Amino acid sequence: MYFMFLTSVIGLISIIPFYFWSLEHIKLQDRYGQQKGKKLTTIFGLISGWGFFLFLFGIWISPQPKFTIPKISASLDFILFFSFSISVLHLIISIPIIFIGAWFGIVGVKETTLKVAETHRPEEVISNGIYSRIRHPQYFGAILSHIGISILLSSLYSILATPIIMLIVYLLSWKEEKELLKEFGKKFENYKNSVPMLIPKLRKRR
């Protein structure tokens, strides 16, 4: 029963080194040359980016015990590879969380371009739009979406895995910023000091 869930968690953890390698643009280009280094970082970026999504999806839909908040009599039928009975209360709570998470993710990708989102190779420090309020909108959106979908599907192990997912997201963000400091220096440091990492600020500083 738990094989798919455990496999997905292990898979999610296993993409961390690939993500780290995808960010080491300078190191890989110095070692293998500019063209081959860029190609390697692109490959690692695609593996880690799509792997993160696929393994997270596996955590959501894997067979596991259900929870309620609290249980009410009305339910809806929802079918997605497996048959789920969804509490109306869970539906009401989860939909806004999922939509907000999706909005942060979509806007974050739109303002950096899909190519940068996939390859993790920005050409400049983006500090306008959503990036003026949070440094990693896509990761914040992923955390919200994870919580929302876990509630929607009443997936107990999935919601309990939230701290692990938050830790992975923090590690990815930390490594990304470490490499951005190497590439963009003071410009990124100034940006980092004025915009929060994973919790969006509601008001801009004057």
Please tell me about this protein's structure:
This protein is mainly alpha-helical and 206 residues long. It has a single domain, classed as Four Helix Bundle (Hemerythrin (Met), subunit A), CATH 1.20.120. The protein is built from nine helices and two strands; from the N terminus they run αααββαααααα. The protein has helices at residues 3-23, 25-32, 34-61, 88-112, 114-119, 137-152, 156-160, 162-184, 186-194; strands at residues 75-80, 82-87. A two-stranded antiparallel ribbon has the order 1-2. A hairpin with a 1-residue loop joins strand 1 (75-80) and strand 2 (82-87). The termini are far apart. The model is unreliable at 77-82 (pLDDT under 50).
Summarize the structure.
With 206 residues, the protein is mostly helical. It contains 9 helices and 2 strands.
Q: What's the number of helices?
A: 9
Oligomer: single chain
- Termini separation: 54 Å
CATH architecture descriptor name: Up-down Bundle
Order of helices and strands: HHHEEHHHHHH
Q: Can you identify the CATH class?
A: Mainly Alpha
Which class do the helix and strand fractions yield?
mainly alpha
Strand order in the largest sheet: 1-2
Average pLDDT confidence is 87
Low-confidence stretches: 77-82
Helix residue percentage:
55-70%
| Biggest beta-sheet profile | 2 strands, antiparallel
Shape: globular
Radius of gyration equals 19 Å
**CATH topology title:** Four Helix Bundle (Hemerythrin (Met), subunit A)
